[in-house]
Fold each of these.
Amino acid sequence: MASQELIKKLEETIENFPDFPIPGIQFKDISPIFLDPKLYEEVIADLVAFSKGKVDAVCGIESRGYLFGIAIAVALEVPFILVRKKGKLPPPIVSEKYDLEYGSAEIETREGQIKKEQRILIHDDLLATGGTTEAAAKLVEKQGATVAQFSFLTALKGLNGDEKLKQFNAEIYHILEF
């Protein structure tokens, strides 16, 4: 969906830091995108085009999922719902636990913000293994809504995040793949 021009601009803008934060990791710094308002608008327009007319609300995963997710929701004229780490939202909350490589974690939304039968877009900046995004999708389903779409700025090849999300029968989109 993204034009080759947008992909090229992003590849030239996103900075690569080898061996950060630990040896063997190639950190992709997306913060330079925010220094170029026109590029940011192009990214939002592309992500909005993927979801226009297909969703009733956007859930953004803490915290970098908020960077684009709020703008997507505003452009789509639909609600934006925070998916937060455990203990960051006042009650009543709905939560979902999930496993990490080094333990477990939990994410939450405020009870009543996701409505039954809503079609939800789950957005985050990066798709890696898909564990957090899978938990967010289960959180959506737990509240009687449907995950219609997943969107990401980038996805990491070889970590099979897309495969983990296929169980939800939702469209999956990312602009870039590294």
Amino acid sequence: MTAQQAPYRLLDPFIGTWKTTGLIPATANNPAVPINGTDTYEWQSDGYFILHTVNVQMGEAKNESIEVIGYDAATNRYPMWSFSNKGEMELMHASFDKDKWTFLGKSLRFTGGFSEEGKVLSGIWEQTADGRNWQFLMNIKLHKIGR
């Protein structure tokens, strides 16, 4: 990484390969759905962008995506453009405050942080249909398995 500004350095804990696990809890109409796979974050373009690749199983469904993460000094947020194997595209914005990361999209929100000396990233995903009322969707935990 050659980008030396503090906002870029905040992204450094994400860099590496992660074993991803999680659970979408059971509802009255659906069984619980386990989540297993890997996430990889790599610096690109002299440290100004991160390429994040996702390869997870959510129950029987294979989910692959790529995401490009940058930094927008005007908003002090991190735009996150993602593209999935289902043809979905989404723009989210990440922000950092007091050791907590928030990823906010049109209908999804992640809140979580790092623990165990940066070797674990965990949090919850929530969803909304109206942009105001958020409901728990799933928990997620990533264990760093490589740099």
